[in-house]
Sequence to fold (412 residues):
Amino acid sequence: MRVRLFLKQVLLALAGFYLSVAVALAGEYPTPIKSRLTAEEFQFARTAWAYFIANEDRKTGLIASVNKFKSTTLWDEGGYFLALTAAYKLGVISRADATHRLSRLLASLARLPLYQGKLPNKVYNTATLEMTDYANKPSAAGLGWSALDIMRLISGMLIATNAFPEYRPQAQQLLGKWKLQLLVQNGRFQGIAIREQAYNHLVQEGRIGYEQYAGRIGMLIGLDVALAEQYKPILRLQQYKSIILPGDIRTADSHGVSSITTSEPFLLESLEFGWRKDARLVATAVYQAQKFRFRETGVLTALSEDHIRGKPYFAYNAVLMDYTPFVTVTARRKDVSDKRGLSTKASFGWWALMRDDYTELLLGAIKGLQSERGWYAGLFEKDGSVNKALTLNTNAVVLESLHYKVFGPLFP
Fold:
């Protein structure tokens, strides 16, 4: 048994060395080109902003998470702050429009009823500001809070108030009313679980990529989440053919919930705050795995979490789920790999960050996914049909990506 454990440790050490060497050989990520948008790229930005025009509640200023469905989360309103800032800096909207929207958004966030009077609920009605469930039915008691969603909102607030400093006092006053210390336990994040035996109980929140992204934001505002910001304590490396896939040691077997490695959190952190060494190492492996799959199968691969038009409505497209490579699952981890798709936002995000031949192929494949109400979510691998889900998150990441091409990260 000891010999087997020793060999396993040696193999993991070698895998870590391989990962470091592979990144070193690949060189540093390219610095942002910081060139103007082409006419076509500016139209990309206008298409993304069309989502926010079409889905704004004129009374509250909140934006629906999904097209025509008057429900939102803190995660998505954080995306709105980021999209608004990017759209202004790219010249898609005027300063007057941006500040008008910021004023209403901050005022409405200040009016949100809080879960147990402590922190924002997971979901709200964009028209009434009521706490709701995920079906947008009023819920007087609420569902609890998500630490990751709140950190995403704070990322947006930090970046928007950096661009519009006159709103910083208003944002600080708002956050001062929330009991943010309740989000932290033993250096990590905790949120309220809403399923099964853990219903309405505090649980550790965040897995690989998402936890570290939130940790970086938490550190910026002084929360004691240094452990959450680090990859080393939770990083697990798994051999897959000739490459290494990064995963989380906290799997369904050990922690009751499967961990998913996907593009999104790595894209968000880098587009918003720039690269840091440990995140860069893991992100490199995540990106290279998707290129590897394309070389192996001929299928363009850019994986993210995405809404789906029709059942199952939402899925995680994973590079790795626990020990299983390249699987697509629902939030309850049901296999729906027949719904795996080429993600619009992942394609834009990797294109902005990497700017290599592969990302040009990705962008070329999804260019046609524009509508009058924003960018569609992507293309289904199975038959190449369009996933016609229209969401705030997709369109926010498109704007963040285009901003990165011109200016680099949103936060200096």
Summary: The domain at 2-407 is CATH 1.50.10.140 (Glycosyltransferase).
